[in-house]
Structures are given as structure tokens and as C-alpha cells.
Amino acid sequence: MSHVLPQYGGGSIADVVESLCDGLRVPGAWDILSLGGAPRAVVLLIDGLGDLQLQDHRELAPFLSEHRVRSVTSVTPSTTPVALTSLGTGVPPGRHGIVGASFLVPQTGDLLWPLAWRDRPPVEEIQPESTWWQRAERAGVPVAIVGPRAYQGGGLTRAALRGGSYVGADGPGERVAAAAAAAGDGERALVYSYWEHLDRAAHVHGVDSPHYRAELVAADRFAEHLARQLPTGTRLVITADHGLLDCPDTIDLEELTALWSGVSRVAGEPRLRHVYTQPGSRTETVDRWRDVLGPAATVVDRGQAVSDGWFGDVTDDAHERLGDVIVVAEGRHRLALPGQDAGVSSLIGQHGAMSPEEMTVPLVVVDV
Fold first, then answer.
1. If you write DSSP's letter for every residue of 158-217 in order, what string do you get?
2. What is the mean pLDDT of residues 13-35?
3. How many Cβ atoms from other residues are within 10 Å of residue 264's Cβ?
4. 24 and 136 in contact (C-beta within 8 Å)?
5. Alpha carbons 77 and 273: distance in angstroms, whole number
6. How many angstroms separate the Cα of 286 from the Cα of each of 198, 217, 241?
7. 307 exposure class (CB count in 10 Å sphere: 0-12, 13-18, 19+)
8. With 0-12 CB in 10 A as exposed, 13-18 as middle and 19+ as buried, what is 315?
């Protein structure tokens, strides 16, 4: 078991936007990552770009490799909705309350799936923290969020990226042009953009598949093209929400009937599951899942995960959304729930756990 713990407040993706906001003279911001000041800042998030994968494929991504300055950590769980909300708010999951790819909302008794979230439950009730995009806008910095049109107005977009203007842009050329125009729109600017295709290839075809390699080349060219189009005096910072790991070893949790005694719900995703127990069943559930899963998973109760710093500081609301028991897949296992999330349970490429492949992402800095 080789876990990488998130480095909240000293070297995680939650520190990226705040560090740039310090250079933009946004009150309350601190340059935690020592990025230095620049009048214009652009953040490009390449979904699924793990630092170990980038270093293994330097020849396919020469631009990103040349400008990589260090690695930073993702968050726990190392998954898009959780990581993206930490990127935008600058706080760990235990504060912003988006604690998984799915999780229980105790007030409603329902599971919330942030990637499919629209209006209910209300976004600000689930995620009340201000974002650095909002803080920058209040400080007079023009802010633009450049991303796919389909994401505009979604619950996750409003939880993680609220603040500034959303600019819908789908194709790579359109996205480059929109980000460059937003960056050159005044004396100061803060722009966010997104690249989704690498993550999809890794999920479906696997890390290091021909499809993944081709998409890594495309991501590198997109980043270089964006840098060439940005106005002089812009700092481009490129990072990711998580890396990925091929997980061919499937454990069908639904077939392991011994696991379900005392369990009311299971959420999360195949690399990290939130297990919600019936009253008085937590300790027995921890013991049972440990016995059944053995070295394929690390099983801890919520209190241990919180005290070990997996989720950072934890509010009362977020505490109740975490599973009573947290189950982290080890090795190349995935903890499948075909009856609940068949699509994600069937994917070869996975993330969400705490391996170096999933938890470490690059920090790439380009001064234009």
C-alpha cells in the first residue's frame, strides 16, 4: 500500500488559483506555490493528466514536459467533481462538501451525482464556499470561464466555477480563441479553460493505449497553441484534476453478499467507495469488509480518514456526507457496482484512490 496524501495548503491543486490571485492583487490571496505575479493569468486544466504518465511520455508531450516545474497532489477522492471544486474554491473537500463522484445528502436521503447535477438540491446549499473566481471579480479582475457549452449552467459548474462570465466553446480552435480574447480584454485578467479528451481516452481504452497516446499529443499541441495565442504578459498555468491507472482486476461488490449486512447505501466510484451503515453497524462493517476484501482494499472508518487528513478540515455538513466507512481500492482493483453505476464500473482506466498514479499531477508554468 503506497498512499499519497493530499498536500492541502502547501502543494495541491487547491492552491493553484489562489497563488495566481495573489499576483493579481486579489485581497486575501497568498502565493502558496510561489508562482510570482503577472497581470494576466490563464489556468488550463487537462482532465486526467497524471504527472507520472506525463513523465513516462515526454516525447509525446514536449511542450508540457519542457515547462513542467513540479508535481502537486490532487485531493481525496482523486476525482473530477471533488478536485475541480477544490481548484475553484481553494479549500479541501471537507470544507466545500463535494466529497465524491456520488455521495449521500442526509437532508434528502438521496445520492447526489455531481456530474449529472442541475438545480436540485440547490448548489449553494451543498457548496457554500466562495470561489477565487468570485473573489477576483469582486476585486475588479475580469474573469472568464471557457468551457464546453453543455457544461454551462450545470450544478458542478456553479459549485466549482461560479464567478465571472461563462464562455461556451467546444472545438479546440474555438476554445483557444475564446481564452486568448478573454486574457487580452484588459490590464488584468483571470481565465479558466478545460481539455476533456485525454481523460475519456484513458477511461475507455486504458492508459498507454494508442488512443491515450494520440490524445496526449493532441493535448500538448492544444496547450502550445493556446500559449502562442495569449497576449504578452500572461502567465499560463497548466495542471490536472487527477491521473489514472489501468484497473483490470474487477471485484463485483454486489456478488459478495457477506459485505452487505448492516449496510444501507454505497456510493463513490470504483476506486473509492463511501459505505453508509445502519445504526450501530460501523465497527462490524469495517471488520467485515477488511476480512472479505483483504489486500485489495484499505478499509477505515470515517473518523480515521478524517483524522489522517484525507479530506482536510471537515465541516459538520461534509462530515455527514462522508461514508461511515471509506473503502479505497489498492493495486489495480476496481470495486464495481454494476447495478448502480454500470458504466463507470466497466471502465479499464480508473481514478479516485490514493496511488501515486492517481494522486500526482503536473504543474506547468509558461510565461508568455
1. HHHH-SSEEEE--SHHHHHHHHHHHHTSSSSEEEEEEE-HHHHHHHHH-TTSHHHHHHHH
2. 97
3. 14
4. yes
5. 9
6. 36, 43, 29
7. exposed
8. middle
Query: How far is Cα 261 from Cα 291, in angstroms, rounded to an integer?
Result: 13
Tell me the domains of the chain and their CATH numbers.
Answer: 13-246+354-367 (3.40.720.10), 249-348 (3.30.1360.180)
pLDDT band for position 1 (50/70/90)? low
Q: Which of 345, 257, 353 is nearest to 305 (CA)?
A: 353
Q: Measured between alpha carbons, how far is 44 from 148 in angstroms, rounded to an integer?
A: 13
Other beta carbons less than 10 A from residue 314's beta carbon: 23
Cβ contacts of residue 66 below 8 Å, gap of 6+?
none
* C-beta of residue 298 within 8 angstroms of C-beta of residue 76: no
Is the bond leading into 279 cis (omega within 30 degrees of zero)? no
Query: Max CA-CA distance within the chain?
Result: 62
Express each pLDDT in 207-226 by its tens digit: 999 999 999 999 999 999 99
Do residues 301 and 283 make contact, with C-beta atoms less than 8 angstroms apart? Answer: yes
CA distance 25 to 30: 10
For 336-360, what is the HEC assignment? ECHHHHHHHHCCCEECCCCCHHHHE
